[in-house]
């Protein structure tokens, strides 16, 4: 009979966080514990399994090949445990208790006001927690059970089996400095893009990838540009400073262009490039019906925005 101890949930959660972040401090922050407690939990897991899972160096954390396989098992175990508690919670009254909603940064500032109003008025017993992160981090959080529901651009991508509920389609708008020759036009073809200095977000944003796809479809490739921004607010300031032009989703236009000191919007000729936005959650979630109802209510709340609702 094996003398090895059974790993605890806390140990698995700590190790999965380290494997996801490859940094003890960031992993500890992600799961809300101290770095010494996290290190102790990982060490205890290695002792329980009698195996080295992590290589610790002065500069970085490396996961051993066996550690990678253990991390996959840990993520599945944690997701199953979360599904168990989720199913019990869902058996009680819907729209009560905690809901961890993940939102990408290029959506959060523009849609969250409507989401928060909807929750406050329609679901007062729902304990909403909002997490603004990039798509890859949101999908990791969904897979580990850290997050319940995502609001992001579709398709979500990744390898996790998810269900997606489309909410709306929106156009991209070209934003240019005041006095630009294209300023105010509403029928600009996409093939003007190769002649423009298109500024992008930094790597890791799905909006950057979408903008690159639009540009490359017409022979433009701004990926090599050295001027990039971490967020849309900085991006429009760069445009206002005369460093180039950029693509904004229509929902961000009023907020961001207003910060840029009179920036002008340029509308593309039909069919305009755009993106689809929706909700995503784990396939088989016990709260599927609840999320469907939430999506229907959210579509109504978003109708005043410059979008095309997907019913």
Secondary-structure blueprint:
Layout: H1 9-21, H2 24-31, H3 35-49, E1 54-56, E2 61-63, H4 65-91, E3 97-103, H5 108-122, E4 126-132, H6 135-144, E5 149-154, E6 162-176, E7 198-201, H7 206-217, E8 228-229, H8 232-240, E9 245-249, H9 250-259, E10 264-266, E11 274-282, H10 288-302, E12 308-309
Parallel strand pairs: 3-4, 3-5, 7-8, 7-9
Antiparallel strand pairs: 1-2, 5-11, 6-9, 6-10, 6-11, 6-12
Helix pairs in contact: 1-2, 1-3, 1-4, 2-3, 5-10, 8-9
Describe the structure.
There is one protein chain. This protein has three domains: about 10-80, Winged helix-like DNA-binding domain superfamily/Winged helix DNA-binding domain (Arc Repressor Mutant, subunit A, Orthogonal Bundle); about 85-170 and about 275-310, D-Maltodextrin-Binding Protein, domain 2 (3-Layer(aba) Sandwich); about 170-275, Periplasmic binding protein-like II (D-Maltodextrin-Binding Protein, domain 2, 3-Layer(aba) Sandwich), CATH 3.40.190. It contains ten helices and twelve strands. Strand 1 (about 55) and strand 2 form a beta hairpin. Helix 1 (about 10-20) crosses helix 3 and helix 2 (about 25-30) crosses helix 3. Strands 3, 4, 5, 6, 7, 8, 9, 10, 11 and 12 form a ten-stranded mixed sheet that branches. It has about 300 residues and is of the alpha/beta class.
